Amino acid sequence: MWRKPWLRPICRGGRRIGREWKVPDPRYPDMPDTARKPEAPAPEVEEGRVLFAQPVRFLLGVAAVSQLPAATLPEVAFAGRSNVGKSSLINALVGRKALARTSKTPGRTQELNFFDLGGRLMLVDLPGYGYAAAPRKKVAAWSGLVRDYLRGRPNLRQVCLLLDARHGAKTGDLEIMELLAGAAVPFLPVLTKADLLRREALATRLAEIAALARERRAALPEPLVTSARLGYGIAELRTKLAAIAGPPNRGG
Predict the structure, then answer these.
(1) pLDDT interval class at 202 (50, 70, 90)
(2) Measured between alpha carbons, how far is 70 from 49 in angstroms, rounded to an integer?
(3) Does domain 56-242 have CATH number 3.30.465.60?
(4) How much is the average pLDDT of 172-200?
(5) What is the pTM of this model?
(6) Comparing 20-24, 38-42, 238-242, which segment has the lowest mean pLDDT?
(7) Which of the pair, 2 or 185, is modelled with greater confidence?
(8) Per-domain residue ranges of the chain
């Protein structure tokens, strides 16, 4: 018995891509898969692919504001509750299995982790909020560090606010939205783990998050649906982040 309808053959609503199945896009529920609008023009998609094909390296982990690296590259931060899938999404973006550390134990990311992407963009993996396997004082210190970073980093161009598609926005997510709005930092709501929801439930969740985003002035339009496991939405997110990156280095 098929438990996930989006993994069925094409006659059941899925489309085979190599060895994977593409999750149907709930924004176009009545449109045949082959007739759906492209998410972005082909040249922009290629820019995203080229950017994330560049060498990426772990720069440093930061436990205090005084340790932050020089603000030379545009930065994109990934924020979300513990166990929302931040590390898995970053790994999917860069095409690496273990660049950002993943764990079955929520709250293992304990620092702001900086990754240099081809000298053009800095990816910042923030500690998850909510549940964390650490003493309360330490969790409070992480929370303060994250808030100070989000409020005062001059080269922070955008935050990808990750929301588990199964659970939607929780209290901590709403607090971060308000913080970003107050700091005038644009944020993109990104639904993760979309492959764990049925199509109708996913469409409902997407509409719910879109409505929340419209109420907040710092939110970017059109929340993004992703599945790091299936690769769904990864090309679109790369395309959006490529628009923020610095120009290619022509010196080498």
Answers:
(1) very high
(2) 27
(3) no
(4) 94
(5) 0.80
(6) 20-24
(7) 185
(8) 56-242
Question: Rounded distance, CA 200 to CA 90, Å?
Answer: 27
Residue 205 has pLDDT above 50, yes or no: yes
CA angle (192 as vertex; 187, 193 as ends), nearest 5: 175
List Cβ neighbours of 1 (8 Å cut-off, separation of 6 or more).
Answer: none
| Tokens encoding 92 | 């999917």
Q: Is the pLDDT of residue 19 over 90?
A: no
* Residue pointed to by tokens 């990754």: 115
Is 166 in contact with 138 (CB distance < 8 Å)? no
Residue 73 C-beta-side C-alpha neighbours within 13 Å: 23
Q: Which amino acid is at 99?
A: L
Three-point CA angle 216, 222, 226, nearest 5°: 115
CA–CA separation, 231 and 143 (whole Å): 30
Confidence of residue 25 (pLDDT cuts 50, 70, 90): low
| Residues 77-107: tens digit of each pLDDT | 999 998 899 989 999 999 987 676 544 444 4
d(CA 57, CA 114): 9
Question: What are the residues facing 238 on neighbouring strands?
Answer: none
One DSSP character per residue, 99-157 reads: SS---SSTT---SEEEEEETTTEEEEEPPPBS--SS-HHHHHHHHHHHHHHHHH-TTEE
Strand order in the sheet with 187-192: 56-62, 112-117, 121-125, 75-80, 156-164, 187-192, 224-225
Residue whose pair of structure tokens reads 């006659």 in the numeric block: 11
Task: Determine the distance from the C-alpha atom of residue 100 to the mean position of all C-alpha atoms in its chain, rounded to a whole number.
Answer: 13
